[in-house]
Fold this sequence. Notes:
The protein is of the alpha/beta class.
Amino acid sequence: MFLTRQFLLIITTSLLKGFLLFSSSSYAQEEDIDQASNEINLETLLTSISNEGPTPCPQSPSIVGYSNITQLVIDLALTQLFNPLPATFTVCPNTIYNITTELEIDNEDYHLPIVVPFDDITINCGVDGNVNNECIFTGGYAHAILGGKNSTLNGFTFKDSIGVSVVTAGPTDFSAQFNNCIWEGNKGYGLLFNQMLFRSILEVVMDTDSLMKLLPTTPDLAGLPPSLGEGMTVSFEACQFLENDVEIALMYNNHSSVVINNSLFEKNSAKVADIIIQNDSQGIISNTCFSEEKNQALGIVYVSSDSTLIQEGVSSFSSATKTSACNDIFKETTTSICLTNSTECMDVKSCEDFISTDITSCKHKTLASDPAPSNVANAHEDPSPEASAPGSSASSIVTKYHTLATFIPLAFACLIL
């Protein structure tokens, strides 16, 4: 082993301290955090963590995969820490995964979110990564936290998040790809938070002071930490976003890039815009439809004056009268604080329409990769049961989170847990 047990204990201590800092409210007392830290038996925690590998899936025994997302996170971390190589992981199909709002590896009813801070990792729902295989992640503050090069998730359904479903927080040479995925019925702040928050994973796990700098000062866009540089490129191919109701935006991109192709947005509500592209960000949207979107104050897409949106074959449809400042695209004409002070928005508003007018294709947009599962074992044997998370003798160590950025730096600590 490249890491000594003592070094591993030091890392674990830093990880847990970071979790405690960010799982508390911004006004948590440090003595309370220290007390909670002292209650954790690190030796017991370490001995409870092991690389178990995939096992036959409960609902499809011919498929070898993970029915415990917490164990997947543990195995991915332990294998990649000591021998980083491209790898593909299979999540068991026909299963509902209840995502925890706490860092509990000893709770059999809840799972950690998917955490991928390593390079060249692919995670499939079922063998072929098809959304019909029904890997359903439900609840929790986040479903996936990604911070590596070439991360790919295929065929997942993400539901009922109360924070931010997906967090992508790495630098510009990192990327994440979602293929054939569905986001439905999520609440909280948004579905995607795409902003550089760290330069290397060691910043997250070893430096409590740097973690503290990521705390929001207020529970809105004005209180978010600044970007540390150019962020990741996040891509969505043949995805659907259905009936999500969020406080800010479905996708928040700050000094980063987002690519959306062949996708459907339908009956979503976002108070600012469906997609925010700001601070020298780039957005590319193609062959995509926005149908019956509502409640966006600014428009379906907000583009800051220093950002770029490239669109091709994008259309929108609404049977209701639009009340947004712009029907489709709100383009900021000059640098302002419109996102944090709405009174300035009308002075910097320039409205643009989506280029496509093909309403028929918008109404009938479906997932591109929708064939029946190729493996008979992926077929339903029972209505998607709930999966149990792995047990552990370690104590539950965090409280519930209160703000958008609360969970973001925390989740990367899962790279060891």
